Amino acid sequence: MLADLTIKDFLAETAGSAPVPGGGSISALNGAIAAALTEMVAHLTVGKKKYAEVEGQMKTIATEAAMIRERLTEYIDKDSEAYKLPKETPDEQVIRTNAIQSATKEAAIVPMRVAEEIGSVMETIIYVAHKGNQNAVTDACVAMMAARTCVLGALLNVRINLTSIQDEVFVGMMRKKADELEANAIRVEQKLLDWVKTKL
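Given the sequence above, the corresponding structure tokens read:
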């Protein structure tokens, strides 16, 4: 399991000659890091008198971010597994083509889920940056940048897999969703970075 490796071993595995872990796994890792940092800022806010009015929200955010972090950690391995065809693929051409198409669809769906998962957290990151412990505001910004990297990286994996999929309806739907998620990630990140420049 990639997620169980030490940081050094994971980096060495990434640097090796095997195609995985690749951009998809790294995107999921960035998402997990974004969730972890969001969780950290929330925890640093809880218990501080200055932030008593948002303590309840921060506790909820910390709990939700922890669950998202766990799911994205699982996606580090799921992304790599999504590219594997069954070892005993029948020789018949039609059956093999269908199996390849099915596997390629899954290889597009997995990173799309990653992008959706962390994309849904980005407005929450803005909230913790604005309302959370201001000593950790830059940590929230790094969380946002990691989240944006996760979304854009995952969507690149979506798009490259779509080029090999013959189902035009599926491809059109996924491209539309990818465009929307990408535009939103860029917009939300810029909103936070523009705001933090007025504070530092």
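The two ends are 41 Å apart (CA to CA). Try to locate this feature in the token string yourself.
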